[in-house]
Each structure stands twice: as C-alpha cells, then as structure tokens.
Q: What sequence folds into this?
C-alpha cells in the first residue's frame, strides 16, 4: 500500500474530484451516444447509411459545411485585421481595443441574436435606413436565409478569431521585420513574405477554433435562419426533442465529434491548446 | 504604398470592426423604449412601460433569481473543483498530467449541442431533468475548465521554490496550500469564478434540453421571447443584461488592475 502511495503523486488527489465527475457524467453519456449510433434502432450501420441514402441528410451536412467555411474565412480575415492593428498601436489604444473586444465577447449571445433580429428584419433598421436614403426600393431579405445566419455567426466568431492571432502576433520578434526592411524589402513584401508566414500558427489555430465553434452552433442559425437554414445542431435537437430518433442524432453527433477531435489534434500540432484558450482570460 | 498610410488604414478599419462588434447590441435600447405593444422602433415617443412590466412580472423575476442561484452555485462549485484540479495538475507536472489536462478541457470545446445531448441522455434515467441539481451539475462540468485555465495561468507565474521554502520552514501541506499557494493564485481564481458565473448565466443550449417547467432560467425565457418575436419586454430584458455585462466588466477590470498594482509593488 505504501509503495503505491509513494509512486502516485499526491497531486492526483486534488485532480480526482473533477476528473471523476467528467468521466462519470460527461464521458460516460458521450460514449453511450457513440454506442447508440450503431445500435439504435437496430444494431448495424443503418444510421450511417442514411448519409448517402437520404437527400435531407446530405443537404443539411452540406449547408452546415458551407456556412462554417464562409463564416471561418470572414471571421479569420476580420480577426487578423483587428489583431494586426492591436499589436501595432500604442499601449493605451490597444487597451481600449481590448476592452471593446472583451465587451463584445461578454455580451450574451441571446442579446446579440435578438439585436440582429431587430436590425435585419423586413422592417428592421437596416432596411429602413437603406430605403430611407433611397439605395433600395424593396426591402432586402436578410433573414430566414443564409445571409442572415452568416452575418450573425461572423459577428459572434470574430472575437474568437482574434485571440489566438493576438497571442501569436505578440510573441513575434519585430526585429525580424526590421531586418527585412533593412535588406531592401518593401512594407508589402515584408508583410507577405515574412510577417504572414510567421503568423501561420495563429492563423491555423484561429481558423480551426472558429470552424469548430461554428460546426456546433445552435442559437444564431436557429433564430436568424428561421427554420429555412437547417444546420446539423438544429437538426439534432429536432431529432431528439420532436421525433425522438436517438440513432440518427447520435450518428450526426458522432461525426461531429470525430471532426472536432481531428481538428483539435491538428491544432495541437501548431500551438499549445492552453495558450489559445488562455488568451481569453487576459 | 507608404507604410504610414497602410497602418493608418488598418487602424481605422480595426476600429470600424470593433464598433461593428459592439454597437448592434445597442439597438435593444431604443426598441425597449417603444410605446407600442409590439416590437418596434419608438417614433418620437418613449416610455418605460416595458421595464415596468419586466420588473413587475413574477415570471421574469423568478427566472432572474433562478439564473442567479444556478449561476452562483455553478461558480462556487466550478471554482473549488477547478482550483483544486489546477493545483493538482501543477503539482504532478508529468506527461500524464498534460494528457489529463487536455482531456479535462474537452467540455469547453466539444460543441454544446453534443454536451446537451450527453446530459439529456444521462439525466433522464437519473431523474435530474428539469431540476436545479441537474442544471448546476451540467453547468459545473462546462464551466470548470474555464477555472482550470485561469488558475493554471496564475500558477505558471508562481515560483515552486516558495512552496519548498514553506515546507522547509515546517508548514504542513494544508498550511502551505492555504497560506502560500492559494493567495498567489487569487487573480486566477477570481477570474475563473467570474467566467464560470457568466457561462452559467448565459447558457442556453444545454439548458434548452434539460429544463422544462420547474426551472426556467433567464436565457430560457429570453429564448422564448425571441422565438415568439412580439413582446418588447424581451428588449427591456436585453437592456438589463447589457447593463449587467458592462457592470461586471468594469468591476473585473478594476479588480484586475488593483491586483496587478499589488503584485508590481
């Protein structure tokens, strides 16, 4: 007994409560869901066969994938822009920018979704304003379509895209850029050939982070899509709460989980995961 | 292209983007002041009737207190579990502990819809659906990784020699923990507790699955209001939530500034 006690670090005793909680109440049911995906309603791969048999399923997965890709591209581009400006301005201004970023981070997702509902509706402020100055004669349909979902999602994801980039950019040695300039490169050349490659870890982390978060996003697509834009997360919830088809939902969840874990693995090759998430605490 | 022009352009663009991130939420303010019974922009006339309705409605008030109860309980539990866990992992510091750390961060990154499914699946047989305990447990599992991150960040700056010194001077493990380690990770613990509270206070996806009638949190009621999309009381609630967010933000900024001043002097 004593021999075992010596071998096991006493630190584990402190880890144990949460570890047990997660294993019992989180990992357990997730494993159960993975199991369900091959056993419900009957054992076999019938749930997975739906992937290429059912048009609905293919359409939902394709919609989700497309929206996630577009959201990620826009969010990372805009996030890069903000992070670059934050790293390259005075401390005072940077603090203000950080405050804005964090406030937007903190405002409830429901409040933000509600605001877009008010802004983007047929009689919303945006259509009113555009109609008022005579740019458009007919209200633009921003809602109940992919455009609305994209606007809402990009708006939500930009702060998440900024944080890994910010961590990465702050750690760069600016002397490298100065050296490039001294050796005769123009500012544009320095950016494309030196700065951008150096921020690859940040770009990869930020891209994957936003993509992972978009993949399972529920609130904004459900509200701004208005039932017209069906993404995987909403489909799962319908399967569970309305039609009670655990098997189908479990299959989709299993695919999503697999995708997320694969992306996390790639991400961990580029950046320490804890620094990515730690960024939000600064 | 001159670099001066470029960085100027970049900076102005960044400010425009930051405004784009924050200002849309402010639309809730005029909408909440409308005199009409339905969601609309006020045309010249303003009224506070929707705020009156919000603060005199037993449903909204009860949701507010339910959310506060669940949020505070979650924050307390998550802070204790997360702090212990972070200190434990820091003590062990081996390759196994890094694997365990990565594993324990999963609830934060696994899509909420999958977490919701998992809790829903388990809470049915356990009889925890639609109960305070069920929500608090689920939120605690989701929020503890946040505490783990913030406390671990504080521990990264903590000098292990201090712990050895304390032990060499004869302090027990418990005393060392209470008098040496905990005070030095206080900023991380505080930040973690705040994040855990916000996560629970705002949480909707898991809540939608595991609550029904008995427990009706504030986000749940907001969600319903948004889905129905008629009653301006939702706008008033949104304004209150924005105000709370801003207050929490200012408080945390002041506290963290004070703490960094303390450590620098």
A:
């Amino acid at each position: 007994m004593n021999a075992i006690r010596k071998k096991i670090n006493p630190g584990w005793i402190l880890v144990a409560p949460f570890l047990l909680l997660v294993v019992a109440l989180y990992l357990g049911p997730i494993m159960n869901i993975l199991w369900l995906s091959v056993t419900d309603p009957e054992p076999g791969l019938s749930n997975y066969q739906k992937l290429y048999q059912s048009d609905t399923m293919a359409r939902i997965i394709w919609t989700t994938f497309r929206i996630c890709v577009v959201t990620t591209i826009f969010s990372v581009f805009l996030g890069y822009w903000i992070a670059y400006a934050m790293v390259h301005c005075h401390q005072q201004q940077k603090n203000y920018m950080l405050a804005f970023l964090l406030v937007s981070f903190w405002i409830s997702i429901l409040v933000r979704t509600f605001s877009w509902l008010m802004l983007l509706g047929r009689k919303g402020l945006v259509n009113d304003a555009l109609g008022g100055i005579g740019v458009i004669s007919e209200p633009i349909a921003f809602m109940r379509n992919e455009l609305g979902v994209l606007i809402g999602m990009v708006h939500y994801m930009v702060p998440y895209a900024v944080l890994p980039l910010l961590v990465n950019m702050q750690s760069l040695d600016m002397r490298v850029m100065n050296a490039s300039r001294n050796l005769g490169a123009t500012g544009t050349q320095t950016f494309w050939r030196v700065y951008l490659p150096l921020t690859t870890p940040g770009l990869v982390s930020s891209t994957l982070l936003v993509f992972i978060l978009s993949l399972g996003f529920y609130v904004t697509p459900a509200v701004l899509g208005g039932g017209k834009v069906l993404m995987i997360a909403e489909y799962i919830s319908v399967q569970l709460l309305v039609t009670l088809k655990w098997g189908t939902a479990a299959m989709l969840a299993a695919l999503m989980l697999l995708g997320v874990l694969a992306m996390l693995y790639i991400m961990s090759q580029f950046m320490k995961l804890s620094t990515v998430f730690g960024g939000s605490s600064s | 292209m001159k670099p001066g022009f470029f960085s100027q352009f970049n900076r102005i663009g960044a400010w425009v983007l930051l405004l784009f991130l924050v200002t849309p939420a402010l639309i809730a303010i005029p909408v909440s002041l409308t005199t009409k019974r339905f969601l609309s922009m006020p045309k010249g006339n303003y009224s506070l009737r929707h705020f009156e309705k919000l603060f005199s409605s037993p449903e909204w008030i009860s949701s507010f207190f339910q959310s506060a109860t669940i949020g505070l309980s979650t924050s307390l539990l998550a802070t204790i579990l997360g702090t212990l866990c972070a200190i434990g992992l820091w003590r062990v510091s081996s390759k196994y502990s890094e694997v365990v750390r990565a594993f324990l961060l999963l609830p934060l990154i696994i899509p909420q819809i999958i977490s919701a499914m998992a809790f829903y699946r388990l809470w049915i047989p356990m009889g925890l659906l639609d109960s305070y305990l069920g929500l608090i447990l689920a939120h605690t599992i989701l929020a503890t990784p946040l505490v783990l991150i913030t406390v671990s960040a504080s521990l990264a700056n903590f000098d292990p020699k201090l712990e050895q010194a304390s032990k060499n001077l004869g302090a027990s493990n418990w005393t060392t923990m209470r008098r040496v380690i905990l005070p030095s990770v206080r900023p991380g613990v505080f930040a973690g507790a705040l994040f855990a509270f916000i996560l629970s206070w705002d949480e909707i996806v898991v809540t939608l699955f595991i609550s029904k009638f008995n427990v009706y949190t504030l986000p749940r009621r907001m969600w319903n209001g948004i889905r129905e999309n008629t009653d301006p009381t939702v706008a008033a609630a949104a304004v209150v939530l924005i105000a709370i967010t801003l207050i929490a933000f200012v408080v945390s900024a002041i506290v963290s500034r004070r703490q960094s001043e303390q450590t620098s002097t």
Notes: Chain B touches chain A through 95 residues (CB under 8 Å). Residues 91 and 152 of chain B are 11 Å apart (CA to CA).
